[in-house]
Design a protein that fits this description.
7 strands; two-stranded antiparallel ribbon; alpha+beta; about 150 residues; about 35% helix; 4 helices; Protein Transport Mog1p, Chain A
Length: about 150
């Protein structure tokens, strides 16, 4: 009797995988409506891997749903205790609007240090609200690596 359930147990993990496909624009999208990465710009994974390879150890990065600041896809986490958001945008208009929204948000909160940079249609937003990075060394290293993508 125990062996009758074995095929079902083996198939359940496959059923849990999201079904992905490419749409007419060539972007990857999940059939469950999840946000898709933007083609032709550094992906969030590219940014995180660059930081990881440089020893910066990004932690806790997870997709933000819905993406903030007019973005198409975003992930938020920390790099050496500094709050970080990496977003991909669909076009020039949305990235300009998104960067402006970030700066307007900083005006409303106490952000000790804040940096927003772009590489093609991807942004890196770093905010040191907790004043964990007074020297700016980590943020400087992050911006150099991001700029090289």
């Amino acid at each position: 009797m125990r062996y009758l359930y074995l095929p079902l147990v083996l198939l359940l993990p496959l059923a849990a995988l999201p079904a992905c496909h490419k749409d007419k624009a060539g972007t990857e999208s999940a059939s469950n409506g999840a946000a898709a990465h933007v083609p032709g710009t550094p992906r969030t994974d590219d940014v995180l891997n660059a930081w990881r390879n440089a020893g910066l150890a990004p932690q806790g990065f997870a997709q933000v749903t819905p993406p903030p600041n007019s973005a198409t896809y975003c992930e938020r986490g920390q790099v050496r205790g500094v709050d970080t958001l990496v977003c991909e945008y669909a076009n020039e208009e949305t990235i300009v609007r998104g960067m402006q929204q970030v700066k307007e948000g900083w005006a409303r909160v106490d952000a000790h240090t804040g940096v927003v940079l772009r590489a093609k249609l991807t942004t890196m937003v770093v905010v040191d609200r907790e004043r964990r990075e007074p020297s700016g060394k980590t943020i400087s290293q992050m911006t150099k690596l991001f700029g090289a993508l």
